[in-house]
Amino acid sequence: MTVATDILAIRLDHPENLMARYFSERYFSALSQDDQARVLKIIKSGLDNPDSQMGAYAQHGGDYDDFAPLLEPMIRDYHKIAAGQGIAQKHDWSATTSPCSLEDIDEALRDVSMRVRVGRNVAAFPLPGAMTKADRIEFEKVMIKAFDVLKDDPDFGGAYYSLTPKSAFELKGQAYQDRVDAHQMFKDMSGDRYLNSGGISSDWPFGRGMYISAAEDFIIWVGEEDHLRIMAMKRGGDLAGLFARLHVGLDKFSARVPAFAHSEKYGYITSCPTNLGTAMRASLHMALAKLTQGGQDLEAAKTVAQKFGLSVRGVGGEHSGAGQGGIVDISPSARLGITESEIMHRLFDGAKALWALEKGA
Ligand code: DAR
Questions:
Q1: Ligand 1: nearest atom to the Cα of 271
Q2: Catalytic residues
C-alpha cells in the first residue's frame, strides 16, 4: 500500500477528514524527497487517525506557505472562505472597551462560567510537533524568565508551575491532578492520539507548565498544542471585562517574549490549521436542558447552534458530554477572517439567540 492508496481509503470512509479530501498524489509525487518527508509529518495525524476533522498539524511556521497547494484548500474549507476570496487576517480588540454583559440578555445569566484564550507560537522555535526535547526545555526557560513581568504586576501577580521533572517549580502527583480537575492545568498529552501522531506530545512532560495569577483568573499554558495558550476566565456576565483582562495580560506578557509567528495572510500561526487567524476560542457555559434533551443529546443543540456560527461541546472539553442540567460549552466556530471584537459580539449574539430558543421565546 502507498500513502496515496491509504489516503484514498480514508477519503472514502471518512469524508470529513479534510487532509484526505484535499491530498493530491500528483502534487505530492512532484515534491522533492525532503519535502515529501515534511508533508508526511504534517499529515501523519490525519493518516493515523482517519476520524480526524482537519488531519494535519504544521511543524514549522513556514509550512503553510511552503505547502499551500495542499494546506490552503483545507484551510478554506474548514474556515468557510470561498476559493476566490482573499485571505488577510485583521486584528481588533476595540469592543473590549465598551460594555457587553450577559445580564443584558437575562438576569439569570449574571453568574456564567466564561473563558477566552488565544494560542501563540514563538517564531524562533519550531512548532511543537517538531521541537526536540532540548528545544522544549530551552523554550520553557525563556518563558520562565518572561513570567517575571507578570509576577511583579499587581494585577497579574502569580506563580509558575512546571511539569519538567526536577524543575525548581515542579508540580506533580495529586497537586498536578488537582489543577487538572480544577480545569486550570492541561491533562497528560501523551494520552491524545492526535497529538501523539503530530509529534506535539513528544517528550512529555518535559518543557510543559503553566503560569497562574493569584486570583486564578489568568493562565498561560506552556508547551501544550501551541507553544503558549494565554487565557482569562471568570464567573459572571461581564463579557467585555473578560476580553479586556485577556488583552491587557497578553500585551504585558508579549512585550517580554520573542516575536510570535504571524503572517499578513493567516494572522497568528498555530499548530492546527483550525486555530489560525485570531487563534482565539471564546466560550461560556450555558444550561440548555431543553435543547439538549436534558443533556442527553448534544447533536440537536449543535445543529441549532451552527445557525448562529456557534460550536457546542461538553463542559469537559473536546469530545466530552453535557454537564448536569444540560450545561454545555458554546463558542464561536470562526477563528480566521474574523476579529477578536467580532468573536466577542458573535458569542454574545449567539448566546442571546440560544437562550431565547431554550426559554421558548
Ligand atoms: N484532532 C484534530 C484537531 C482538530 C481541532 N482541535 C484542536 N486543534 N484541538 C483533527 O484534525 O481532528
A1: 8
A2: 117, 225, 229, 272, 274, 281, 313, 318
Q: Which domain holds residue 64?
A: 3-79
The verdict on residue 224 lying in a domain is no
Per DSSP (E only), the strands in the chain are 112-120, 158-162, 209-213, 218-222, 228-236, 262-263, 267-268, 280-287, 310-313, 327-332
- Residue type for 83, please? A
Q: What tens digit of pLDDT does each residue of 289-311 get?
A: 999 888 888 888 898 899 999 99
What is the CATH number for 37?
Answer: 1.10.135.10
Residue 332 belongs to some domain of the structure:
no
DSSP structure class, residue 140? H
Q: What does the angle CA 208 – CA 180 – CA 148 come to, to the nearest 5 degrees? A: 45
Query: Quick one: which atom of ligand 1 is closest to the CA of 272?
Result: 8
Instruction: Measure 52 CA to ligand 1 centroid, in angstroms.
Output: 7
Residue 131 has pLDDT above 60, yes or no: yes
Ligand 1 near 322 CB (within 6 A): no
Give the number of domains in the chain: 1
Output the nine-digit C-alpha cell for 220: 498561560
Exposure letters 199-220 (e unless 16+ CB within 10 A, then b) = bbbbbbbbbbbbbbbeeebbbb
Q: Is residue 34 part of a domain?
A: yes
- What per-residue confidence (pLDDT) applies to 48? 98
| Contact predicate 81/87, CB 8 Å | yes
Cα 98 from Cα 100, distance rounded (Å): 7
Q: Judge whether 192 lies within some domain.
A: no
Contacts of 9 (CB under 8 A, 6+ apart): none
Place of cell 493530491: 24
pTM, 2 dp: 0.95
**Residue of the CA atom closest to atom 2 of ligand 1:** 52
| 53 touches ligand 1 (CB under 6 Å) | yes
* Contact call for residues 242 and 348 (beta carbons, < 8 A): no
